[in-house]
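Page 47, continued from p. 46.
Same chain as before, 363 aa.
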Amino acid sequence: MTRPPFHADHVGSLLRPEELRHARAREKAGTLGATELRAAEDSCIARAVKKQEEIGLQAITDGEFRRDFWHLDFLKQFDGIELVKVQSGHTFDAQDVPPMASVTGKVGCSRPIMVEHFSFLKSATQRTPKFTMPSPGTAHMRGGRNAISRAVYPDLDEFWADIGGAYRKAIRYLYDAGCRYVQLDDVGFSYLCDDNVRENFRKNGDDPATLASDYASAINEALRDRPKDLAVTMHTCRGNFRSTWFAAGGYQDEVVEAMFRAGVDGFFMEYDSERAGGFGPLRFLPKGKKVVLGLVTTKSGALEAKDALKRRIDEAAKVVPLENICLSPQCGFSSTHHGNLLSEDEQWNKLARIVEVAHEIWG
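Result:
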């Protein structure tokens, strides 16, 4: 498989090495300069790239080592989006509560976002450098309508048009720098399969019945007129913070049908536990699209057995052609700088297991 997603792929974030944790702590304390921090990041990323290549992965990421949070570091660089502090409302946020994206002005992209991050990654590998970013819907999801200024956007359709256009520019900046594989992370689709979360959407001023279509349409607007040689995938999961999760419930047909209308090449879907339900909704996968089964958990260090993974893939192949199936972890190993509760060795063993199983199935 030459066009992403690959039969053995991964979501992107990696556990932060101790050297990097120490450097970032010193930088925040004011005892390490920005230049020294960048040098530490470069060194850690170079080693992570080499390890991914040694394992046999074709898609190579920088582990999101330059970010504190998978989404906020990117979103805050758009015009019109600010980060605001919030009070913890549930155990998922109980420790080190992340701020929330809030739309306070007209959304735009007046300058490149993280292009220098990608350029370094591209220079460090001969394989396919993959850039991960939060999807357009992520700018809405957590705070909902109540976090989008009604003075600036009395009509929410104008917001969706602007965020789509801003993403189109951000992606073009990356493409012009040589990026040919982008992954959009959008937990909203999975969250919409949880009745409790749907109630939260209502409290935030939204109708959960329409949001899956809104999120998919925003992705399509972001990808309008994309170059043919730019591969784009989308990842969705049920939350990932220090090995905890936020939402539960199998993929609902109406949500999955809307999600599959997003014009991406492949869908990374969480399937590592009973919370995810069965493979039945994959029957809606459009012809020619790929599904990347997140069968390997990042929430614990226990290594999945090869035979068990092969059985799950065989089960999914009753719904989707085997050649359109790929294998990955269910999420990143470190969606936030804290990381999940497993060791770096366990992380690499899991990624190696994915490559091994993919090789035995697809060659």
